């Protein structure tokens, strides 16, 4: 690893303690190379790239014999999917990102929505090695713009309680200082705010049980006078697939306040977790929640067309019927939950096509436009005017 970078990041984390609480701005870390001409401010526009789950993986970090015995499903994913895909695709995907950066001078940052790594360490010190390597590959990518990371469940996962504890400590010890250096404020774990110009990013930690994520988000959104606001979290706020996974699904009494904070502040909610691309609008009494889910788990076939495409007519019970063999044990709960959600959802699409999103704010019209690109294509698969969705059109 670049030890100068690591030292600078840790020193920055120490020196910047308290910066968030006192509201002071902090200069960019000198250890992070930046392109001073980016974003192009002459146009008054601003864009950013959004990546979903990536699951960077190297099978050399694991005891594969133990993994096969204890977690055969994870062994298959590591050895047959994520490690081969990382070897084949990671450097090329970085090149795709850098080509897009070169083509779009208004791009000012990259948002990665969690599960940057496969995690699942099963050796002593393995979690630290994985976290250190992930910081290494991101540093080597040298994007020239800040990279905002959300925490994903795989980023803090190990096999067994001891290795899970190590994984959480490794994220705090390696990834959090990297984030701190990227955004110029002290990030102790994975809750933070980043503002550039008139654009605010509020990054939430779906796995922090000691901090009220709703209150953190509400306060950050309400106290900011930024014109454009984005909330970034690994887990979706609104169920978007047949799995029905979403934040606070086990605490439904807390969910209205979470949705209220997003809707009242007209923030766009960005998420990953389910390895799908989806855009939906979920109406509430406080306004609409517009959610964008991004999938960046590439495959060896490098497909540029989706295997399927679902629309509004499929949302609700139709998602459960679409995958009838998935998880029969909670089928009734999923039917009930998705049927209830369908009463409030009036815009929906979903596909499994891996890629990345380019979100652009037009400096003249103020419109927020989403373009979703397959990972291996220069032509967008989908284009959505997010401002129109926010305004109920």
From TrEMBL:
It comes from the Bacteria. GO terms for molecular function: hydrolase activity. It comes from Candidatus Cryptobacteroides excrementavium. Keywords: Signal. Residues 47-277 form the Calcineurin-like phosphoesterase domain. Residues 1-21 form the signal peptide. InterPro entries: Calcineurin-like_PHP (IPR004843), Metallo-depent_PP-like (IPR029052), STPP_CPPED1 (IPR051918). The keyword Signal applies. The keyword Hydrolase does not apply. It holds the Pfam family Metallophos. This is Metallophosphoesterase.
